[in-house]
Amino acid sequence: MAENPKTLPNGPQPGITYPLTVVYCGNCSLPLEYCEYYPEYDRCRAWLQQNLPTEFEKLSVSGGSLDDENSEEKKRQKRGGKGMIKTKKKEGPKQICVSRATRGKKKSVTVVTGLNSFGIDLKVAAKFFGTKFACGSSVVGEDEIVIQGDVKDDLFDIIPEKWPEIDEDFIEDLGDQKR
Ligand SMILES: [Zn+2]
Predict the structure, then answer these.
(1) pLDDT class for 153, splitting at 50, 70, 90?
(2) Residue 62 C-alpha to ligand 1 middle, in angstroms?
(3) Model's pTM, two decimal places?
(4) How close is the Cα of 105 to the center of ligand 1, in Å?
């Protein structure tokens, strides 16, 4: 995780009692005050609300008068604007499917679908597979790549290796499919 030190507060902060007790977030494992820089801040907040309701309250309504809090909130929003990492839109369940299809009498092709649901550029992926397996590989549908050759079993190792966010468990083997 690369943090942007420029956007992080430095030195003693108003309204905070020192020495600091650092509480770590169960979602992103960062100290709580860093959560807002984490892409899954929503999930951090959810975790906090469930596990540390008192800390959650503090984040929502931290000490000081209401006016102070409001201006502080505005500052933070401005500051966070550019550095904020946007979470990719989640559409539907994430699932990669791989299957083998026969083409002609001897040739097999491998079909990969679902990479789009992980926000992966299909053209990049197709090119990667082509290079990796030294064979033809092309985008054929909205979220479908066809690789020339039977490489289905290899994909279970290669996909998580190339895209660590995709666990092997996300890949479903559909076996042999008729096309
Ligand atoms: Zn967090």
Answers:
(1) very high
(2) 17
(3) 0.47
(4) 54
Å from CA of 49 to ligand 1 middle: 11
From ligand 1's centre to the CA of 10, what distance in Å?
Answer: 19
Q: Which candidate, 109, 82, 83, 85, places its Cα nearest to that of 98?
A: 109
Residue 94 sits at the vertex; the CA angle it makes with 88 and 99, to the nearest 5 degrees, is 135
Count of residues making up the chain: 179
User: Which residue, 1, 8, 2, 5, is CA-closest to 76?
Assistant: 8
Considering only residues 165 and 73, tell me which one the structure prediction assigns the higher pLDDT.
165
How many whole angstroms from 34 Cα to the centroid of ligand 1? 7
Among 26, 34, 20, 21, CA closest to 50: 26
Question: Per-residue pLDDT for 79 more than 70?
Answer: no
Residue 106 is predicted with a pLDDT of: 77
Which residues are CB-neighbours of 142 under 8 A, at least 6 positions away? 116
